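User: I'm new to structure prediction. If I give you an amino acid sequence, what do you actually give back? Let's try with this one:
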Amino acid sequence: MNNIKCLIYLAKKYNKKLHYTDFDIPNNSNPKLIDYCKHINFEYKKIELNNSNLTNLYNGFFFAEINEIESIIIENISKDKFSIFHPTIGQYNTDSKGFEDILHSNKESIKLYLIEPSTNFYTSDILVKDDKSILSLISYLTRFKKYFFQISLGLIASSVILLIIPFLTKAIIDKGILNEDMNFVYVAVGAQFVLYIASLTIDFFRRWFFLHIGSRIDIQLVNEFLQKVFRLPMSFFENSNVSTLLKRIDDHSKLHNLLAVTSLKTILALLTITLLTSVLFVINTSIFLIFLIGSSLSMLWVYAFLKKRGKIDNKRFDITSKEQNKTIEIFEKIQDIKIYNTESKNSAEWLKYRTKLFKIENQWLTLDQVQELGAEAIDKVKGLLIILLSAKAVIIGKMTLGELFAVNMVVSQLEKPMKQVITFVVDYFDASVAFKRISKIKNLEDECPDNHFFVNEIPPNEGIILENIEFHYPENSKVKVLENINLFIPRGKTTAIIGTSGSGKSTLLKILMKYYKSTNGEIKIGGIDINTIHSSAWRNKIGVVLQEGKIFNDSILENIAMDKVIDYEEIIKISKLVCLHEFILENLPHGYHTVIGEQYGIHLSKGQEQRLLFARALYGNPDFLFLDEATSALDNQTEKRIIENLKLLDEEKTLIVIAHRLSTVRDADNIVVIDKGRIIEFGNHYELIEKEGMYYDLLKDQLVLNSEYA
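Assistant: Good question. You get back a string of structure tokens that encode the predicted 3D arrangement of the chain. For your 710 residues, that looks like this:
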């Protein structure tokens, strides 16, 4: 199956999805990659390659046959840089020397092929485009096929009832009233009563089915969106705000409304329109044509405003997100607002967004009213023309009085389904706009895409090697946050990273946690590029305490264990290690079962929260422990006790510590000093003191500061 992995990887590079099910693969076999190229519309050309023409490769994709059943994908990035995709190891970069080693890994001359998509590649039925239209939502309805039979029976029964009632009305007048036959009238009215009861019963069950299907669809839509959000990289959340994501969740209500309410009602409406208009056609073709023309004009009127409606809806979405974000900010930062008397300023900012929203809502309401009232006016004129034509037909003897009443009843019954069709057109357009906004999130690449292959087994007892690491933010590529970082973090040792604020310490730590991906360079663990390790596998091996760590509204036990199995004895052991156990037993009413948090739990101080975050990071016995200002909220005595306790941990555990307080890191095995994104000093405490460089100056400044305020 390894060669199939290569083709799936290659297809993704051309923005196509390919699955194992697309191949007819015999059991227990690994077909040659070359055998399946034509099957998925790739063209290939054999290239004779040796050391003399190694640098002649131009940009493109190549695959090399390592042996009879194993291949790799090669991408030429630059003159001396190649990207290799190995189905077992994953993707990694190498230079000309590394590529030569691949060539020499086989005694025989390696077979190399240039591979490109053919002209049929993008139209191939075997490949599915990543981008989906709103029509793809139909798949949600097909999941409820077991209800289709009942719903279809209900639709047919309702339509038959609607079809019979006008003819019964016509018969009551023409045969009952005009012939003065009360017995016929009683029978006909009784039949109508039975039909109305049947119609109400059918409507009751139909509403229940719609409610059931709608609720299920709503849960599935929002759950899939949340699952997608969970798979996105941390960089996405740092550039997004909560209110925008909440509004996109609200957008799902429009999709739910279209799928579970409007679309199903519209199917019934179209069936009703088809049957009742056929009645009109049978009674009088002129009336049928007036109804058809009037309804078409009404639809065109509504359609004419849809584009402008979409523009206003996007503006409303944007301003509502900003207004909601400001509201959240006010309540989250109410303490600082009151301390600095900025109530007026914040109120004015909120009012600014609210005023803009009010104006946009007025535009929306005006457009909605013009759209609705215009369509209603056309319908009224249509109705008057039908009455006029019907009355004239009765007077000149082309229609009976019963047919007149039947026509009026049919037109009256058509009013609701016609409005439903118009509602569907509007809801479909609104849902399409919402779908595009949601798709902007769903089309983002996952942190670990399914069609990429990641290593899940991390080599034990290995250090971390950083080679030529560079990083800049996408929005500001000219400013390098990190530059030329070369560092070895040994296994089982404590490595401290210090520097002034903004020097790049926390950024480097986030790269190590796979929150960010370095712009250039490699990080290797046991020879494996960290980018080829699955994020969840890597984070299962690390414990982290960040400055901005969060506490959940849950019990102490759940906050420490998170999604791991709760081991009560282990949690108590770790809590003692981080000086938290006594506080829990002496101050919390339900001990470790006490619910904490800002919303409905007991509030903890910053120092208590930081000790709990320490316990969370240590629970599960991670191989690596990353600490970013992890003791900043602790008093010196507690900090000292925790640091001493950490020395009792497993000798194989690797600690990486970031701290401004140098007393925290003076006992570290290695201290790395970073300034302006570069490593300028490296050594232990005593070696750096002897150098009298930046570390010495920082230490001296802190000692002076402490002595002044002692």
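You can read the tokens as a compact description of the fold. Here is one thing that stands out. Residues 142-442 form a domain with the ABC transporter transmembrane region fold fold (CATH 1.20.1560.10).
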